[in-house]
Design brief:
The complex is a heterodimer. By secondary structure, chain A is of the alpha/beta class. Helices cover 44% and strands 14% of the residues of chain A. In chain A, a hairpin with a 6-residue loop joins strand 9 and strand 10. The longest helix of chain A is centred in the last third of the chain and has 24 residues. Chain B is α+β, with helices and mostly antiparallel strands. In chain B, the strands form 4 sheets. Chain B has a 3-stranded antiparallel β-sheet. In chain B, strands 1-2 form a two-stranded antiparallel sheet. In chain B, helix 6 runs parallel beside helix 9. The chains are: A alpha/beta, B alpha+beta.
């Protein structure tokens, strides 16, 4: 099918990851785009390069959710040659190019990473409840809808939608710390709460479902032994927080598009900073006399 | 948890500027001062309330202003009650009646419990009719509640009523999170259930919606968390142990090994 910017609202099963992240659908707002926009609008417009962590995450997702695609997209080479730079010799460049040709366009992954990913998947299978969640369902479908408040086209790609019309959306997360305390912070820090609000909105729009009938669950898997696995859902206040954040950012995007200007600042004026709570003030002898000077305006 | 109020901080939360601002948007300062004193009194002697989350305390106190009910213990309209670490604003049937009348949804509303031995008869349909002649009981007699009803008089004189029988009362009791109040004041709780049911038939006002929402959240309807919903949706699913077959190198259910020809000596 032809992937394009003006696709109609609905669920699409035949859009692959490359098409989803590719140029043709770049104008449709995604969660990662909003994540960058949240920092500063101009950031969202920068071309994105995949970091090592992102590569690992993608490999992990493909391995767990679409194993048949994993073998087509990833390869474990025998060795990793030095990546050439400006000062590299011709021999280094040739070796690297030859090595790249042997990859046949597949993404290289180290043996260690593959072992880690495999163990992470094992730990999901061994989790009494997470294994149930992943038993049957469709992975990596694309949902596209028009936002009713801004009219902007949005897209999401749920990791897994369990079969049987349960109204459940699953999201797999590889993390350094899967504890409830750490993951709760991650939900704010990395915008997982916003993601939850956005995905639920998209699902509700195309399925004509109510928010109260839907459940968005995170399966957090640690990247280090013993590969702790936890299943988390967010309470209604947290979902609402994420949902509002999603719509706040959509509003910003709409304004930027109208002006055709994505500023590299949040505040066009100036902002006063207050002392953070962790900056402890120490008291010492003679502090009073010099503090008086400060209060009098001599400093 | 950051949201948890330390015992000594509850006064700070009650006298929070945000609560005051929100309160004064709806009612005058005199009412605010009065209700805040009643709230403080409720907190003073209640350890569990003092430990409730800041947000729940804030919401409960603001809901007093939104509904117009009072925390005055003498009026017995609304109460602050700790439930599962959250402060909840609970209304008695008197409180619900006051909210309905004050918000001009109805001219008058009242509820009554029907006891064993009372003369009670009612008809619904085109010409609704309700007759209730209570029986005078002796001091030691403790008659069972058999029904309860609530009657509302609308502004144009029309009367609306609902009757709930013992089965419905028991069903409401079962769905409640806490049975203590039901055990001690069955008749009052039955009246409240009748008023809540009648609320649905009355012209809705914002104050009434806030009150019913507050009640449903904490009392009548059990709060089901998303995690509970998720577990419930996958309740019947059985987990299948998977093994990697050394022959095909594919993931297969362990039960398939039972029928395999090469199961003897298989390392899997």
């Amino acid at each position: 099918m032809g992937v394009k910017d003006n696709m109609e609202q609905g669920i699409y099963h035949n859009i692959n990851s490359k098409e989803y992240h590719g140029e043709a659908m770049a104008n449709i707002v995604s969660n990662s785009y909003l994540g960058r926009l949240a920092k500063v609008p101009a950031y969202a417009r920068l071309p994105q390069e995949e970091t090592e962590a992102m590569k690992f995450g993608r490999a992990f997702h493909t391995y767990v959710l679409e194993y048949e695609v994993f073998t087509k997209e990833f390869i474990v080479p025998d060795f990793f040659p030095t990546k050439p730079n400006k000062r590299s010799t011709q021999k280094t460049i040739d070796t690297y190019e030859e090595w790249e040709c042997e990859l046949l366009g597949k993404q290289p992954i180290t043996k260690d990473d593959l072992e880690t990913i495999d163990r992470m998947r094992d730990s999901i299978v061994q989790h009494p409840f997470a294994s149930k969640l992943f038993k049957e369902g469709i992975s990596e479908t694309t949902i596209i809808w028009d936002d009713i408040y801004t009219g902007l086209k949005c897209k999401v790609r749920p990791d897994r939608i369990p079969s049987g019309n349960k109204g459940v959306i699953l999201d797999l997360k590889s993390t350094a710390n899967a504890s409830a305390f750490a993951f709760r912070n991650d939900c704010v820090k990395f915008g997982y709460a916003r993601e939850c609000g956005m995905y639920m909105e998209g699902f509700a729009m195309v399925k004509n479902a109510l928010f109260k009938d839907l459940v968005f669950a995170f399966i957090a898997v640690e990247k280090e032994p013993p590969y702790r696995v936890e299943v988390y859902t967010l309470d209604i206040d947290f979902v609402q927080y994420g949902w509002l954040e999603f719509h706040r950012l959509l509003q910003i995007e709409k304004e930027c598009r109208e002006k055709n200007f994505w500023p590299h600042y949040i505040n066009a004026g100036a902002e006063e900073l207050t002392k953070p709570p962790f900056a402890k003030s120490w008291e010492w002898d003679g502090q009073d006399s010099i503090q008086k000077d400060f209060s009098m305006g001599d400093r | 948890m950051a949201d948890e109020v330390k015992k000594q901080d509850y006064k700070v939360v009650i006298y929070d500027k945000k609560i005051k601002e929100r309160f004064l948007e709806i009612v005058d300062e005199k009412t605010y001062n009065k209700e805040i004193i009643f709230a403080k009194q409720a907190f003073d002697g209640n350890d569990a309330l003092q430990k409730c989350t800041i947000n729940s305390i804030r919401n409960s106190i603001v809901n007093i202003a939104l509904t117009g009910a009072s925390l005055n213990p003498a009026l017995q309209q609304a109460f602050l009650i700790p439930r599962k670490g959250k402060c909840c604003l609970d209304f008695s049937y008197r409180g619900l009646c006051k909210i309905a009348v004050d918000s001009e949804s109805v001219y008058d509303i009242d509820a009554t419990a029907v006891f064993e031995g009372d003369e009670f008869d009612y008809e619904m349909g085109l010409y609704p009719r309700l007759v209730h002649k209570p029986k005078m009981h002796d001091k030691d007699e403790k008659p069972e509640v058999i029904a309860a009803y609530a009657i509302a008089t609308l502004h144009h004189g029309i009367k609306k009523f609902v009757v709930i029988d013992r089965e419905k009362i028991d069903r409401a009791r079962k769905s409640a999170q806490y049975d203590v109040v039901w055990k001690a004041h069955l008749d009052e709780m039955a009246k409240k259930t009748a008023v809540k049911l009648l609320y649905k038939l009355l012209p809705q006002t914002e104050k009434m919606s806030v009150a019913v929402k507050s009640l449903n959240e904490h009392e009548g309807i059990k709060e089901v968390t998303n995690a509970e919903k998720l577990i419930d949706k996958f309740k019947d699913e059985e987990t299948v142990d998977m093994v990697t077959c050394p022959e095909t190198e594919q993931e297969i259910p362990k039960t398939d090994c039972e029928t395999c020809d090469k199961k003897d000596g298989c390392p899997a």
